[in-house]
Amino acid sequence: MLKVEIIEKVAKEVRLTRKAAKEAVDATFNTIEDTLQKGEKVVISGFGTFILRGRKARTGRNPKTGQSLQLPQMNTVGFIAAKSIKKSVRK
After folding, report:
1. Does 15 lie in the same domain as 3?
2. How many CB atoms lie within 10 A of CB 21?
């Protein structure tokens, strides 16, 4: 599902204009992003949790040239689905 499809579905479900639905969806995604940038987790009850996961610095390899290079330490975003979501997908 694309972001545009989410916006259209929200507009239809809540009977909003597409512009208002787009603003609502954008605000939601921006809030999640801003919270993660602060190093905090985002918990959405009944849906799941967005968390930051740290990756240690490591040695990588350029697949094209085979040359070794040092990859820096970085954070990645992880998502843990709620139990109800996991159950509904497994059926």
Report:
1. yes
2. 20
Look up residue 61 and give its amino acid: R
Report which residue type is found at 77: V
17 close to 8: Cβ distance less than 8 angstroms: no
Same domain, 77 and 63: yes
Sign of CA dihedral 10, 29, 5, 20: positive
Q: What is the pLDDT of residues 46-87, one digit of tens each?
A: 999 999 999 999 999 999 999 999 999 999 999 999 999 999
CB-CB contact of 41 with 50 (8 Å): yes
Statement to judge: residues 50 and 84 lie in one domain: yes
Domains: count for the chain: 2
DSSP output for 25-80: HHHHHHHHHHHHHTT--EEETTTEEEEEEEE--EEEE-TTT--EEEEPPEEEEEEE
In which band, very low, low, confident or very high, does the pLDDT at 91 lie, cut at 50, 70 and 90? confident
